[in-house]
Amino acid sequence: MKMMEMGGYYSDGFSRRYIPVVREPKNIEILMVLDLIKDKKKGVLELENILAEDECEPQKLTLHFENSNYLIMLLDYDEHGYIEIRTPYNPNASQDRFQNILDEPYGATTVLQDFEIVKKCFIEFNDTGNVSKDVLN
Asked: Hey, which bits of the chain come out as E strands?
């Protein structure tokens, strides 16, 4: 079962602005919010399936962003019901480096600069309740 809810915040460097919670957002609303935050200094956007079955279905797609660097994380479960965080793989990044986003270090290979992949993930998750393992593995 699926019922999506979107919300988050962004900063332009001076103040924090909250993105109002939208229940059952349409794809056009998601794209409008993504276009709004694309050039902002930093922030977080979440799209959550509030009816996802625990330990079975993906629950939340989260975007952490800072200075045109994007970290997408999908809260999912493996076949045994254990939490699995799926992220993209950036083959152009060094495997032995870290990238700070929102004051936390992440492996550089999980951080993207391609905003079109961010859009694709949010639309796919909104439409299906999941994101292809070809995109987030």
From this structure: 4-11, 16-23, 42-49, 60-66, 69-77, 83-86, 98-101, 104-107, 111-112
Q: For the whole model, what pTM was predicted?
A: 0.95
Tokens, residue 108: 């550089």
- pLDDT tens-digit map of 61-100: 999 999 999 999 999 999 899 999 999 999 999 999 999 9
Q: Which amino acid is at 101?
A: I
Q: Kindly give the residue spans of alpha helices, DSSP state H, lying in 1-134.
A: 27-37, 115-128
Q: How far apart are CA 118 and CA 62, in angstroms?
A: 10
Token digits of residue 90:
């950036």
* 3 state SS of 43: strand
- What stretches of 38-90 show up as alpha helix (H) in DSSP? none
